[in-house]
Amino acid sequence: MSPLLDELWVFSKAGVPIVDFSREKNVDKTFLGFFISAIKTFSQKVSGRELKGFNIGNNKYSCIHCLEGQLVLVCRSPLDVNKKKIQKICSVIGTMFEKMFSIEDIEKWNGDISFFEDFQHKLDLYFRMSDI
User: Fold this and answer.
1) Whether 9 contacts 63, CB under 8 Å
2) Helical H runs in the chain?
3) Is the CA virtual torsion 4, 9, 11, 16 positive or negative?
4) Angle between helices 83-100 and 117-130 (to 10 degrees)
5) Which of 19, 75, 84, 102 sits 20 to 30 Å CA-CA off 122?
6) What's the confidence (pLDDT) of residue 118?
7) 103: which DSSP letter?
8) Tell me, what's the pLDDT at 101?
9) Does the domain formed by 7-130 have CATH 3.30.450.70?
10) Which residues of the chain have pLDDT under 50?
11) Are 100 and 121 in contact (CB under 8 A)?
């Protein structure tokens, strides 16, 4: 993983985990997905705007919406990491995802996570290259 990002998850708009890139495998992705979905809904109802991020403890969670709002990329980083750098990384990853998959792919997806293995490999490569 990049020194700027600790974890990255891709969730459906309903909060279903699709793919993750994480050093720590102890996060309950399903719980986190439903939490993000609930916060997104709350943010939309209260402010009328999309959730862009939030802080919990020593962590910053940045949210990037892609595929016309069908997916949410959630990046966890330390609070002291520059917000613009995180947004740029998430934007690159979102673009990478959108080049590999369409809304129709997501709608037809049967829930089998292996469908996203090529994306996972590209994420791995992206972060290995960024460490050079």
Assistant:
1) no
2) 29-47, 83-100, 103-108, 117-130
3) negative
4) 140
5) 84
6) 92
7) H
8) 92
9) yes
10) 1, 132
11) no
Tell me which residue has tokens 């069908």. Answer: 70
Three-state DSSP class for 112? coil
Q: Any idea where the domains of the chain sit in the sequence? A: 7-130
Check residue 100 and give its pLDDT: 94
- With 0-12 / 13-18 / 19 or more C-beta atoms within 10 angstroms meaning exposed / middle / buried, residue 49 is exposed
Other CB atoms within a 10 A radius of the CB of residue 12 amount to 17
Helix %, strand %, coil % of the chain (to 5): 45, 25, 30
